[in-house]
């Protein structure tokens, strides 16, 4: 053993996992990878790492399902969420499921290595903006139950479209960001408006802002 933290990287994008390996591979020991719930659980249970870098949105049930399955067998394995999403319900959802921290993907390699070490030592680590979501949730400032109930009506792709639209993206920009057609964006927006019983994009933006999803 070289004394480095043993890490499993879980993300459904091959290029992102390769980037993480390249960025921090000399500072930690990456002992496994996963691209969906099944491969992630297999890699984690098989290697028992110090820390799992876990994307929130994964095929097969998401990051929370990975934690649920792993913690049934290995309750002491620590998870650090590493996600492009900075939405309140994502942050709070994975913390409630057992993650020890949550950082966004614009974090530097040096900061990520530091976060891994701190989580391995038992600390909780959050990107500064995200810590406020957790404090608000525990103080009751965010009604998590109602947010979860509303969002449960939406598919994962619909949630992604919702956030981008609420942030002011044009349909064409949403399409480019998510690698889908403008027509598909329009279809998703119509579905979101229908499911949330909203009339237009302005109401959608206000709905998302009120719930701190953007």
From TrEMBL:
<dbReference type="InterPro" id="IPR039420">
    <property type="entry name" value="WalR-like"/>
</dbReference>
<dbReference type="InterPro" id="IPR000792">
    <property type="entry name" value="Tscrpt_reg_LuxR_C"/>
</dbReference>
<keyword id="KW-0238">DNA-binding</keyword>
<feature type="modified residue" description="4-aspartylphosphate">
    <location>
        <position position="55"/>
    </location>
</feature>
<dbReference type="Pfam" id="PF00196">
    <property type="entry name" value="GerE"/>
</dbReference>
<dbReference type="InterPro" id="IPR011006">
    <property type="entry name" value="CheY-like_superfamily"/>
</dbReference>
<dbReference type="InterPro" id="IPR016032">
    <property type="entry name" value="Sig_transdc_resp-reg_C-effctor"/>
</dbReference>
<protein>
    <submittedName>
        <fullName>Response regulator transcription factor</fullName>
    </submittedName>
</protein>
<feature type="domain" description="HTH luxR-type">
    <location>
        <begin position="147"/>
        <end position="212"/>
    </location>
</feature>
<keyword id="KW-0597">Phosphoprotein</keyword>
<feature type="domain" description="Response regulatory">
    <location>
        <begin position="6"/>
        <end position="120"/>
    </location>
</feature>
<dbReference type="InterPro" id="IPR058245">
    <property type="entry name" value="NreC/VraR/RcsB-like_REC"/>
</dbReference>
<dbReference type="InterPro" id="IPR001789">
    <property type="entry name" value="Sig_transdc_resp-reg_receiver"/>
</dbReference>
<dbReference type="Pfam" id="PF00072">
    <property type="entry name" value="Response_reg"/>
</dbReference>
């Amino acid at each position: 053993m070289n004394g480095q933290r043993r890490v499993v990287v879980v993300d459904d994008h091959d290029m992102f996992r390769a980037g993480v390996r390249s960025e921090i591979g000399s500072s930690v020991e990456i002992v496994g990878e996963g691209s969906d719930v099944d491969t992630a659980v297999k890699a984690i249970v098989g290697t028992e790492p110090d820390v799992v870098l876990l994307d929130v949105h994964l095929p097969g049930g998401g990051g929370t399902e990975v934690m649920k399955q792993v913690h049934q067998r290995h309750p002491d394995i620590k998870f650090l969420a590493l996600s492009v999403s900075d939405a309140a319900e994502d942050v709070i959802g994975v913390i409630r499921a057992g993650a020890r921290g949550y950082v966004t993907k614009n974090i530097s390699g040096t900061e990520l290595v530091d976060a891994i070490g701190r989580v391995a030592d038992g600390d909780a680590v959050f990107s500064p903006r995200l810590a406020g979501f957790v404090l608000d949730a525990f103080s009751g400032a965010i009604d998590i139950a109602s947010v979860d109930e509303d969002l449960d009506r939406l598919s994962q792709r619909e949630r992604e479209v919702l956030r981008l639209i609420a942030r002011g993206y044009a349909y064409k920009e949403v399409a480019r960001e998510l690698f889908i057609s403008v027509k598909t964006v329009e279809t998703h927006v119509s579905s979101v408006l229908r499911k949330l019983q909203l009339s237009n994009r302005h109401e959608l933006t206000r709905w998302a802002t009120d719930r701190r999803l953007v």
